[in-house]
Amino acid sequence: MTHHADPLSPEARARAASLFKAYDVRGVVPDELTPEVARDIGRALVATLRPDTVVAGRDMRVSSPLLASAMIEGIRDSGAAVVDVGMVSTDALSFAVGKYGYPAGVMVTASHNPPEYNGFKIAREEARALSLDEGLDDIRDLVVSGGLPPIVPAAERGDLTERDILDDYAAHMLGLIDLDSLRPLRVAIDAGNGMAGVTVPRVFRDLPIEVIPMYFEPDGTFPNHPANPIEPENTEELRKAVIENGYDLGAAFDGDADRVFLVDEQGRLVGGDILTAMVASRMLEQHPGAAVVYNLISSRGVPELIQAKGGRPIRSRVGHSYIKETMRREDAVFGGEHSGHFYFRDNWYADSGMAALLYALELISQAGKPLSAVIAPLDRRFRSGEINSEVADAAAVMHAIEERYRAEGAEIDHLDGVTVSFPGWWFNVRASNTQPLLRLNVEADDPATLDAKTAEVLAMIRGTDGR
């Protein structure tokens, strides 16, 4: 049977260009992303990366089976074999590419986006993620131009096999930590009807840890709350459950389970940067003197801890392609971001919420103290969180801010936007890649300074300071 579906119309091709984001492919199904586009992306992937085999996985979204199937057809139409690993988390797909040595992998997911979205995360060998600067632009150009190589004859179509990777994935994750050091903890885990509902039961099956599952049933309609734990309202139920039942801690995963956020025993959210410091402290015990990468809007507490533990703190721009690149260059053992992404050298530099959670549980077990006590020394400052403002001319606003604080004697750098530092407080303001927004993050040594300085910088950004 041959698969010569109708070629995409010129209009559909032009529309497809907007699906290609900085690090992945994403859009609304079926208005923007259709099975036809998915099939062409599969063909373009093979034409660009020239793999003999591609490993394919998908999340629980309603549109994922159809899009995965179309993508797989496109890959086979181009003569490459496909190993279908079924419904898995993004970090499990990265594991499969790295561990089994596949030359390419593709995950059908739109991560934490609303249910009508879907997309693809594409990796080449060693689980290196494709970005627009590195390969994704070539795939886009082939799809948009229609310049795809012809479909191979039926006799040369790629084979399709299935492979269950869950046991191997669990063994790999558990191999990262000292299992004997774990003590019985009661942990509420909110999978948000996402892929952690598939991976957590297998990874935790034989551990002395009692998992209290919340929303483990994979459901791409997200009937309970969006699978986006960075928004505080989406962890409200988890925080309540931890307090009311006296659990040791809570953990919330996003839809494709590559990100995780923790909640301490008092029901307070733990920032991604504070979890970065926690994991770094554990990793530096295993790898003395190693480099650890953190993004520049993390708390000052992160580099301080890395240094105190004898590690080399390395500051990076925000965004996973920058962090992974820096980690490879510096041979860093670990990298973390405020947004709940954690990257591990022993995991092919790919991010894994599961690995971060296991390291945190190991640390809490060994400390013999509640999570709030473990993080207290790391989390002494006060942060605004990210505050977005719509501005007409981001460059002009950033320039004015820089001039003002330079005159006040601030230390200034331009690694990512503008970072302005004083001894007792600092802030970073940077433009969004995708919207006319400026993103502000402020940190101060005391709440009064935080409030005053956040208001002061916001007034400049929003033009309400009368200057």
Question: Can you give me a brief rundown of this structure?
Answer:
This protein has helices at 10-16, 35-49, 64-77, 90-100, 136-145, 166-174, 196-203, 236-245, 272-286, 301-308, 320-330, 353-367, 371-375, 394-407, 447-461, and strands spanning 25-28, 53-58, 81-87, 104-108, 117-124, 128-129, 160-162, 186-190, 210-214, 249-253, 260-263, 269-270, 291-295, 312-316, 334-336, 342-344, 382-383, 387-390, 411-413, 418-421, 425-431, 437-444. 36% of the residues lie in helices and 21% in strands. The longest helix is centred in the first third of the chain and has 15 residues, at 35-49.
Overall description:
The strands form four sheets. Strands 1, 2, 3, 4, 5, 6 and 7 form a seven-stranded mixed sheet that branches. Strands 17, 18, 19, 20, 21 and 22 form a six-stranded antiparallel sheet that branches. The chain contains 15 helices and 22 strands. It has three domains: 10-164, Alpha-D-Glucose-1,6-Bisphosphate, subunit A, domain 3 (Alpha-D-Glucose-1,6-Bisphosphate, Chain A, domain 3, 3-Layer(aba) Sandwich); 166-372, Alpha-D-Glucose-1,6-Bisphosphate, subunit A, domain 3 (Alpha-D-Glucose-1,6-Bisphosphate, Chain A, domain 3); 382-461, 2-Layer Sandwich (TATA-Binding Protein), CATH 3.30.310. The chain is an alpha/beta fold and 467 residues long. Helix 9 packs parallel to helix 10 and helix 9 crosses helix 12 (353-367). The mean pLDDT is 95.
